[in-house]
């Protein structure tokens, strides 16, 4: 059902100071350390939303 969601941004709800959004994993083909080879890796996008008042020390 949610297979097509790769990443998203979560919305902070008071009194939260930050929230972590974890997207779905996907496999990618990337060059290997050897010259003429490729390898498959699994990547995942992670986004953290923070209340800037807490990060900047205004609260």
Automatic annotation (TrEMBL):
Start and end residues of each 2-oxoacid dehydrogenase acyltransferase catalytic domain = 1-58
Top-level taxon in the UniProt lineage: Eukaryota
Q: Pfam families in the record, alphabetically?
A: 2-oxoacid_dh
Signal peptide positions on this chain: none
Which Gene3D superfamilies is this protein grouped with? Chloramphenicol acetyltransferase-like domain
Q: Name one GO cellular component term.
A: pyruvate dehydrogenase complex
Q: What GO MF annotations does this protein's record show?
A: dihydrolipoyllysine-residue acetyltransferase activity
What InterPro entries does this protein map onto?
Answer: 2-oxoacid_DH_actylTfrase, CAT-like_dom_sf, E2/Pdx1
Protein's GO biological process: pyruvate decarboxylation to acetyl-CoA
Q: What is this protein called?
A: 2-oxoacid dehydrogenase acyltransferase catalytic domain-containing protein
